[in-house]
């Protein structure tokens, strides 16, 4: 009978499920998801810009192109369209090579139009970078 009792105790030990590896995996997954969700929810850095007096002088000696909310491209009060941007920038930078191009873009302007205007201005080979002016709060 002693043999029989030992056999039953061995079977009882074998029927137990070892859940410690499963608990380890649950904790590892929990740590992984906690760490990754912190990176996803980072909003970024907010920057408070200072007012610069030199910015007013820059706008006087620059090419100002406006893009309205319905996608019209305007220079000097007249609509030039996307195809007219390259010609205007080439003509005005031929007289003054240091003249920058500044885009005044409406908030509701289509992003595709803005990108195409930037491309056309860059294809005209302006010496300075094309800038986009923003509205103050």
Automatic annotation (TrEMBL):
It comes from the Bacteria. Its main location: membrane. It is a single-pass membrane protein; Single-pass type II membrane protein. The chain crosses the membrane at residues 21-40. InterPro entries: ExbD. GO terms for molecular function: transmembrane transporter activity. Keywords: Cell membrane, Membrane, Protein transport, Transmembrane, Transmembrane helix, Transport. It is found in: Cell membrane. One of its GO terms (cellular component) is plasma membrane. Pfam families: ExbD (PF02472). One of its GO terms (biological process) is protein transport. Belongs to the ExbD/TolR family. This is Biopolymer transporter ExbD. It comes from Oceanipulchritudo coccoides. The lineage of its organism: Bacteria, Pseudomonadati, Verrucomicrobiota, Opitutia, Puniceicoccales.
